[in-house]
Each structure stands twice: as C-alpha cells, then as structure tokens.
Amino acid sequence: MEMKTYLDLLKILPKTNCKECGEASCLLFALKVFSGQTSLEKCPYLDQDLFPQRTSLKGLSFNQTLENLKILREKFQSLDDFIERAQDLGCEPESTGRGVLLPYLDWLIRIEVNQEGHPTQLVNLSGETLDPRDEILLCNYFIFNGKEPLTMDFVGLESFPHSISKVKTLKIYGEDPLVELFTQNQPKLRSILQRFRVKDFQKDTHGFSFLVSILPKVILKVVYWEGDPEDGLPPGGKVLYDRVALNYLDLECLVFCAERFAERLRC
Fold it and tell me: Could you tell me which of 148, 177, 216, 257 has the fewest CB atoms within 10 Å of its CB?
C-alpha cells in the first residue's frame, strides 16, 4: 500500500487512542512511524499484510522532530510583550482579555496568555486537535515576528535563497495534490473554498487563480491551468509566495503551508 503522508496511515488506524502501541494517540503513532521513531507492527489492529514493502512509507515532508517542537514551545512561551506582538501579526484580542484569536487556515486558534503576559497554549476552537506540525508552524510565526510589510508581489519558491531542495517537496506535497483536487472538483470548487479566507478569485478560459490567507501575514497565490487533452498537455498548478515571506516563516514552514492547505481542502 502506497502512503505519501502520515495522514494516509491515520485513515486506516482505529483512531481509538487505545495506547496499546505505546503512544498517547493514533495521530502520534502515525507521525512517529513516518519519522522512523516506531514501527507499524506496534499497532495490534493493523493488517500487516497491507504493508509488504516497508520502503513504501515516505518520511514527513515537514521534517521536524518532536524534540524541535519542545524547543520551539519553550521559546514561544517565553516571548515578552506577546499581546502587542500578536496584534502586529494579525491577531485579535479575546473579549476576556486573557488571550488572542488567530485565523489559521479554516480554523480560529485561541492563544491563552498568563498573568505575566506570556503565551501558554494554543487551542483550536473548532475542537480539532492541532498536530505537531501545526504547532511548529504557529510557534515559528510568532518567534519570527516579521515586520516588513507584505508587497503582494508573488514569486515562486525557487526565487528564495537555498530553496532548490524545497521546490521538489512543494510540488510533490503541495502543488500536485492541489492540481488533483481542482481537476476532480471544479464544479463545486467555489463552495469548497468558502471555508477558507480566499479573495481575488479570477477565472479565465485556461484556468483560475486566487489568494488564500494561511495566516494573516502569510498569503499564498494559487494558480491552476486546465491543460489541453487534445495536445497532450496535462493540468498543472503553481503556489506562489509574497516576495517578503521569509520574514515571517522559514522555507520548510512555507512549504508546509501549501501542503496543509491541500490537506484541509480534502477534509
């Protein structure tokens, strides 16, 4: 069975969080399998005959370990003047005054703040659990604390320094899945996109493009072209970033933004 991401494995796990594998949840088990920290055999409810080739399991494209997350959490929770920083990054104060609200993908994240003014935890108000990759992205967004105004001039990932290895990852985990989704769901595409903070949707005879806010200061321009079957041209797509995007996130996080957007579209 071919599996491209930990989500493919998660779909066939029992999702009961029984802990018989030794992990706290099925989500954590799937993440650790893909990062090589545990094995499929640890789950007693998986049909092992489905996995004759262990090499078909591919590593996470967002290649951060849980140890990275622990370090980032510590940095995040020690940030000073957090409320002011959060407002500069597009958050809204919560009515209680004990936190801020952050739009992220099609979610709203509550960030609790303690009496000393430090952030304590991230809570997804939809009730869905944030996985470690989401937390890494969100912590980095506040740690980077980008100041340069967005230009709304969008460029390919290859325009950024040291991005050669990431361009292929973006295509495999972000652009190709988006092209597949758009090709299969064109009649209902606009209704699917309504959950997200999408604007400037433009359609022509060859395809369409739109802007989507992953975070208030991280905006992607998504371009899709339909191709021409008669000429043997397949459909294609491209994800573009604001020219100053590296002020707000690193390359891995920027790639993950496109990957996570594709994943959320499938939900």
Answer: 148
1 lies in some domain? no
Same domain, residue pair 186 and 132: no
CA geometry: angle 175, 244, 260, nearest 5 deg: 30
Q: Report whether 236 contacts 225 (CB < 8 A).
A: yes
Q: Are residues 116 and 158 in the same domain?
A: no
Question: Is 99 in the same domain as 201?
Answer: no
The model's pTM: 0.78
Domain co-membership, 19 together with 86 = no
Q: What is the rounded CA–CA span in Å between residue 152 and residue 130?
A: 29
Domains identified in the chain, total number: 3
The first and second tokens of residue 75, run together, are 């940095």
Q: How many C-alpha atoms does 227 have within 13 Å on its Cβ side?
A: 13
Same domain, residue pair 30 and 78: no
Compute, in degrees rounded to 10, the torsion defined by CA atoms 238, 243, 244, 249: 20
Residue where one domain finishes, among candidates 115, 144, 173: 144
Q: What is the CA radius of gyration of the chain?
A: 20
Domain that holds residue 28: 6-56
d(CA 89, CA 109): 13
Q: Which of 34, 56, 78 is the last residue of a domain?
A: 56
pLDDT in tens, the chain (267 residues): 556 667 777 778 887 888 899 887 787 788 778 766 777 888 888 876 666 443 334 444 434 446 778 889 999 999 999 999 999 999 999 988 789 999 999 999 999 999 999 999 999 999 988 888 899 999 999 999 999 999 999 999 999 999 998 999 999 999 999 999 999 988 888 899 999 999 999 998 889 999 999 999 999 999 999 988 777 789 999 999 999 999 999 999 999 999 999 999 988
